[in-house]
Amino acid sequence: MQSCCATGFKWEGTPTGREDTIDNHPVYISGDSKDRAILFNHDAFGWQLNNARLLADHFAKEVGATVYLPDFFHGNAFGENDVVSVPDGDSFKMQPREGFDMGKWFAENGMDIRLPEVIGVAKALRKQYSWVGAVGYCWGGAINFKLASKDHGGLVDCVCIAHPGGTTEDEVRKIAVPIQILAPEHDPTFQPQMRDFCNTEIPKLNVDYNFQYFPGMVHGFATRCDPSKEAEKRALELAKNAFVYWLSTHAK
After folding, report:
1. pLDDT for 150-161, tens place per residue?
2. For 143-200, how does the pLDDT look when each residue is reduced to its tens digit (9 = 90+)?
3. Of the candidates 23, 24, 47, 171, which lies 20 to 30 Å from 73 by C-alpha distance?
4. Where does the record place the Dienelactone hydrolase domain (predicted)?
5. Model pTM greater than 0.70?
């Protein structure tokens, strides 16, 4: 089993975008569309993760959009060696390095705590662009369930989610925009019961829905897999292509 959730692999490549600010947040920007924007909600490793920036470049090019990857952790993302993945039955769990208070980190960066900041950025994009999509991985995937809610009045036009860092049945019932979910086989934060609930309930909501299952993969595969391993590389390419398809299909 891979250990890409907490440790992961750095991908080769040099990001081609630029850094700026949006709604008082540092942000990595890729692309130059005047009409389409994609809000990239990062995982626990934050906006400076090279892999995330390479993905932002890919989506900007393939979708024809301007991608915004903001810093929602105020410079306090997971460090490369802050946590490791350790086996836990058929899955895994994250184990913090000595001296790293993971509980404190999650208390400071919980989805509900940072959600107002994410909404602020989404509103800023909505004012500037006629179409706004959102992609999210892990922490950012959980945020995207919230952005997709009818409670937020169409802040985004569609969402893509890979290995989300949790959601609730109530959040799922409130989904109001086209939603795509990429789910690995092994994921302690998006377990089979919740996968089944999504696949039962979302089709009842009168929104476009796409669910894709990745056998053998674990939480984190779409942002921190090992491309030197053929199965992981293939899953990564499928995940990237799936997001491009969903965004392009719903872009205006």
Report:
1. 999 889 999 999
2. 999 999 999 988 999 999 999 999 999 999 999 999 999 999 999 899 999 999 999 9
3. 171
4. 31-250
5. yes
In the numeric block, the tokens 């470049």 are attached to 57
H or E segment to which residue 22 belongs: strand 18-22
Measured CA to CA in angstroms, residue 89 lies from 8, 69, 103, 150 at distances of 20, 35, 22, 37
Distance (Å) of CA 76 to CA 43, 71, 162: 12, 9, 22
Spell out the alpha helix ranges (H) of the chain: 50-63, 102-108, 111-128, 139-147, 169-173, 192-201, 221-224, 230-250
* Predicted confidence (pLDDT) per residue in 58-95, tens digit: 999 999 999 999 999 999 888 666 666 655 665 556 66
In this structure, the number of other CB atoms found within 10 A of the CB of residue 131 comes to 19
Three state DSSP letters for 165-212? CCCCHHHHHCECCCEEEEEEEECCCCCHHHHHHHHHHHHHHCCCEEEE
Chain-centre distance of CA 203, in angstroms? Answer: 22
Domain 19-78+112-250 architecture = 3-Layer(aba) Sandwich (3.40)
Burial class (CB in 10 A: 0-12, 13-18, 19+), 221: buried
